[in-house]
Amino acid sequence: MPRSGSGHWGSPSPTAQLAQHPDQPNCQVSINFPISSDKIPSVLKKSINSACRSQHHVLKGDAMFPFPGFYCIPVFVGVPADVRAKQDTVCYYGNRGSSEPIRLNPGIYGLSNSLLDTPWKKLLKGKQLFTSIVNDQSLSCDGLVQELLNVLNNEELNTPDPIQEKQGDGYSKSLIQALSAVCVRSPHYGTRTNTIILIDAEGNVTFTERTMLDFDTSKWSTNSFQFNLQA
């Protein structure tokens, strides 16, 4: 997830969609937002629409393929110098669902490989676990990170789930079952990276990332970085 010096964040993630061609491109658009928070929605829409070129991407020669479904969440984080004048701003936008960016009110939201807060059982379970952890005032920063990583590595299957199964029409039954877990494990597809970002009221950021090594689920590398958002 990119970060600019003034506390703006934005990164795309894909939504579930069966590829119509083995060479169909994945979404790889990254955008920084060195702008004021009130302009984020309009700049976000303009930047993504320009990158996607009417939701099509030229692959080889004249071959054209539909741009995969994705969403992007830019964040304007108020830093100490201006936090009293401006509130943190979070938006949601993608090439599926609403045609306009959605400014999110304070609260807890869930995202999986679908639209915002689509009530998949895995998403509802993840939100329940997440809410319980962030409301635990006894946790230290390190303890909070570890508990959140535990949520992201929950391999419990959440089946049957008719809503998820409908969106996954065309997938094999075994893959749909595997995809019902927060942490996906299957022979050729699964979760390989976890990211936790904590930002306190003073603009101090703890960025932790846990990544699988050599496609081996028993080997992981965890790195953590601390920095302060500058005005």
From TrEMBL:
<feature type="compositionally biased region" description="Polar residues">
    <location>
        <begin position="12"/>
        <end position="23"/>
    </location>
</feature>
<feature type="region of interest" description="Disordered">
    <location>
        <begin position="1"/>
        <end position="23"/>
    </location>
</feature>
<protein>
    <recommendedName>
        <fullName>Transport and Golgi organization protein 2 homolog</fullName>
    </recommendedName>
</protein>
<dbReference type="InterPro" id="IPR008551">
    <property type="entry name" value="TANGO2"/>
</dbReference>
<dbReference type="Pfam" id="PF05742">
    <property type="entry name" value="TANGO2"/>
</dbReference>
